[in-house]
Amino acid sequence: MTDTVTSTETTESVAEFAARARSWLADNMQPVDPDNPPFSVRAEQQSWDHAKDLQKRLYEGGFAGICFPREYGGLGLGPSYQRAFDAEARCYEMPLILNVPTFTICAATILDMGSETQKRERISAAIRGDEILVQLLSEPSGGSDLAGVITRADRRDGTWIVNGAKTWSTSAFAGDYGLLLARTDWTVPKHEGLTMFLVPLNAPGITMRRIKEVNGSEEFCEEFFDNLELGDDAVVGEVNEGWKVASRQLFHERRAVGGGSEFASGIGAENANEMPPDHIGLAEATGQGDDPRVQDLAGRALVRRAVKEQLIAHVGGAIADGSLPPNAGTLIRLFHAETTELEVDTALAIAGTAGVVDEGSPESPEFAGVMDDVGVRYLSRQTGSLGGGSSEMARNVIGERILGFPRELAADRGVPFNQVKRGNS
Ligand SMILES: Cc1cc2nc3c(=O)[nH]c(=O)nc-3n(C[C@H](O)[C@H](O)[C@H](O)COP(=O)(O)OP(=O)(O)OC[C@H]3O[C@@H](n4cnc5c(N)ncnc54)[C@H](O)[C@@H]3O)c2cc1C
Prior knowledge:
The protein has three domains: 14-99 and 107-131, Acyl-CoA dehydrogenase/oxidase, N-terminal domain (Butyryl-Coa Dehydrogenase, subunit A, domain 1); 135-244, Butyryl-CoA Dehydrogenase, subunit A, domain 2 (Beta Barrel); 275-402, Butyryl-CoA Dehydrogenase, subunit A, domain 3, CATH 1.20.140. Helices cover 38% and strands 12% of the residues. The protein contains eleven helices and eight strands. The protein has a four-stranded mixed sheet with strand order 1-4-5-8. It is globular and about 70 Å long.
């Protein structure tokens, strides 16, 4: 990444921009302790309303959409300006939950592939803090084979009629528009008959339900489409070229998850699950601080965390200088998922049965502030190995597209989709 300014309209240096941000943040945003930030509960509407309010404040102050072009409501500045702003904003409350998927995935994809109107309307509404964008890709029949979606959009009397279902849509209950992948031609191989649509989530024909997860959260949603009517203006990119758009979306998702998107604003954990467990604190609270076996467990987790940080820096740099292909972001994504599992497993192994008590309850006051919901976090330990594609699919990408191994057998390759065997057919 360079320090160049993509807009031709600014003469402000990065240092001047950072100084102006520092002063504005002090006057307008709530200071927080970056090591102990206030977390957002993504399953609650009020978290999203609050994030929109913070985003509006940033917009009014002239610090929103730093890397988005000016014509779509942004500042048209380069990544070095965003990084400088992030460093200044580290000690202030920021609308971090808007980063994924609104800015880093959906707005970034619309910027690359959307129509001029979609860019002008949707990106600027998100930057103003008026709208939240979500992804409608996975289906009840499976998410790994994304090109195999069976939600259909049929042409009828000059409009598109959508029928089908989507699932696992992160925070869709709070969303305003969703990027929806549907099949528009069943007579061609699966990748060739898809179209991406930008869908208003309050449109008639959409029924949305929230999904209750095993950890009690209700952030995910499922949507059912019954004769949802869309115009041509909802098409993102070209009709039957939806795979190009979806691929771009997945590219942005991998960058976002790996922490390499210039469209993310603000740094730090947005919720408690993103904070690494305190293995040493857990060992001490459970009276095992001097146990060599426990020290060994904690040490392994800490080393893995350090390696992860270095891998992010190394792979990020290698992608930027072209020595690794953009798909190499998958390495970070896979290592991140594996590290999270190791860290959470280690926390539960150290906490033992204490990991399932309520933190700081009258029966266990000694655990107040240290138990960190170890047991509940264990229930969602595999989140990172599914979101944005499973770890098995990540291994396929690494094998086939980075290491150049032969592609795995696909019985449906080149076969018209309506002739592909599905389920019991
Ligand atoms: C935190 C989180 C956020 C998410 N957010 C969204 C969202 O906003 N929008 C959205 O549309 N979806 C979202 N998803 C869904 C996610 O994209 C899917 O869970 C994921 O793509 C896997 O699909 P699936 O769960 O249907 O599993 P399936 O595709 O049914 O796969 C089941 C198992 O089979 C394995 N498998 C499948 N195919 C292969 C293969 N070819 N080779 C090897 N192994 C294979 C998989 O790895 C997996 O272990 C989210 C999921 C999570 C956990």
